[in-house]
Amino acid sequence: MSTNQSLKPLTLHVNSEGNLQIGGCDLVALAQKYNTPLYVLDEHTIRSICHDYKEAFKSYPKVNMMYASKALCTEAVSAILASEGFGFDVVSAGEIYTVYKAGADMSKVLFNGNNKSFEELNLAIELGVGRVSVDNFFELSLLNEIAKSHNKVVDILLRITPGIECHTHEYIQTGHLDSKFGFDLTQIDEAVELILEQYKNLKLHGLHAHIGSQIFETTIYADEIEILVKELARLDEKFALKLDEINVGGGLGVKYTESDVPPSTYDIAEKIITSLNKNIEKYGIEPPALFLEPGRSIISTAGVTLYTLGSSKQVPHGKKYHAVDGGMADNARPSMYQAEYSAQIANKPEAEIAQAVTIAGRFCESGDILIKNIQLPEIEEGDILCVYNTGAYNYSMASNYNRVQKPAMVLVNNAQDDLIIKRETLDDIVAHDIIPQRLQKND
Ligand code: LLP
Questions:
Q1: Which helix (H) or strand (E) holds 265?
Q2: For residues 246 and 241, what is the distance between their CA atoms, to the nearest angstrom?
Q3: Quick one: pLDDT at residue 441?
Q4: Residue 170: what pLDDT?
């Protein structure tokens, strides 16, 4: 059992008031104190999954754990992960800057992405990012030029497309052959030749692949490892090039609903390490350093979102809708990927189940439905809905659709609550607006 297999934060229970509590903090009291919608993050659950990853992989001598910041990137979250010894997979100047401001060891940061800009690559070099995973020929040449202008040699990996399909939503598959990411296997030799012969400001250390996200199968990791190790051996034979790093990406799934059964960190570690050892022997290479980039599985379970229930509608002979004060702008996943979530009423978690209802969001779009057909007790206006497993890809994909302010985020631990993201204000909403002089009223 590892933390990603839990639907709810590990510290969640019903307190003596009869309310849900996480990290020793009453969720109803948090909703009153900070208002809703509110993201709540349980520090203990984050540290627990970090421990699971470290324990699971401890038998392999060289492992670099890097948290995929895209799942949830804030300074406080980055500080927690850094304190656990994790590095970071970052994909933008914004993520690089956030982990830098949080005090991360920049040598443990890897910069990914299929269209990194000149400014972003420049910032990565200036701030001492440890590895750049180069995605394509254009980037190889651009990065070499920038590195030359800094008089530096930049340490790189090559992102490759291993041609593996995983059974997850089409939009979050990345390793299949016609993916937009990475070098095709047939393009690797040309990239290596360019690095060895022309791009003297790049030093290649290894290969990187990422198959997809919310993955429940473990065998595809073994397939991915075989492809990576075989390529290392082939490149050594062809170019006498000793590459000693492989990055297998992220992707481990989490449990959004009772019917989801994701593997544990121990299950994937077993597959990855067994496959590594087998293929190291089969292809006769030195054991490479292993990089992992988990995102969702690190942060999803730790997060819940609190909403206040408001209006309702009974469609004659049809659905019963209850609306919350948030929705697709704070959690795009149901409307974007038909993602399913589980929830309870925080102020009466033990009340008898009364009905199947549909939880609608407050945004002006029919598709803004958070949860379809969920079994809940009788609902009254003002009840607090606690939606589970919202730590990953909720805040990080949030928008200001309908000009609604983004919610606040609170970190809870040992009965202490700390605000880690302030709620946006109406002034924040208009902060970047400019009315041209000629349109301004001059009265
Ligand atoms: N490494 C690379 C190169 C990636 O592209 C990703 C995710 C990860 C690591 C982390 O994967 P994870 O462990 O989180 O599965 N917005 C989508 C997920 C997109 C994932 C993109 N890449 C969602 O909400 O389901």
A1: helix 265-283
A2: 14
A3: 85
A4: 60
As to burial, measured by CB atoms within 10 angstroms (0-12 exposed, 13-18 middle, 19+ buried), residue 186 is: exposed
Mean pLDDT value of segment 403-421? 98
User: Is the beta carbon of 294 within 6 A of some atom in ligand 1?
Assistant: yes
pLDDT exceeds 70 at position 171: no
- If you take atom 6 of ligand 1, which residue's CA is the nearest one? 250
Task: Judge whether 417 and 33 are in contact, CB under 8 Å.
Answer: yes
Q: How far is the CA of 393 from the centre of ligand 1 (A)?
A: 9
Say how far apart CA 243 and CA 27 lie, in whole Å: 50
Ligand 1 pocket, residue 68 CB under 6 Å: yes
Residue % of the chain over a pLDDT of 90? 95
Rounded to whole angstroms, the Cα distance separating 211 from 193 reads: 26
Residue type, 383: D
C-beta separation of 283 from 229 below 8 A: yes
Active site residue 166: no
110-133: string of b/e by CB count within 10 Å (b at 16+)? bbbbeebeeebbbbbbebebbbbb
> Could you tell me the distance, in angstroms and rounded to a whole number, from the CA of residue 337 to the centre of ligand 1?
13
The average confidence (pLDDT) of the chain is 96
Whichever domain contains 270, its CATH number is: 3.20.20.10
- Tell me the residue range of the domain where 358 lies: 1-443
> What dihedral angle (degrees, nearest 10) is formed by the CA atoms of 395, 397, 400, 402?
-110
> How far does the centroid of ligand 1 lie from the alpha carbon of residue 121, in Å?
21
**Which residues fall within 8 angstroms of residue 401, CB to CB, at 6 or more apart?**
328, 329, 363
- Look at the chain and report how many structural domains it folds into: 1
How confident is residue 401, by pLDDT bands cut at 50, 70 and 90?
very high
Task: Quote the CA–CA distance of 374 and 343 in Å, as a whole number.
Answer: 8
Q: What is the pLDDT of residue 169?
A: 59
407 in contact with ligand 1, CB cutoff 6 A? no
What separation in angstroms does the CA of 199 have from each of 112, 196, 311? 19, 7, 62
Q: What is the pTM (predicted TM-score) of this model?
A: 0.97
Distance 427 CA to ligand 1 centre (A): 32
CA-nearest residue, atom 18 of ligand 1:
172
pLDDT at 246: 98
Q: Which of 211, 213, 397 to mutate to test the pocket of ligand 1 (most atoms within 8 A of CB)?
A: 213
Measured from the Cα of 294, ligand 1's closest atom is: 13
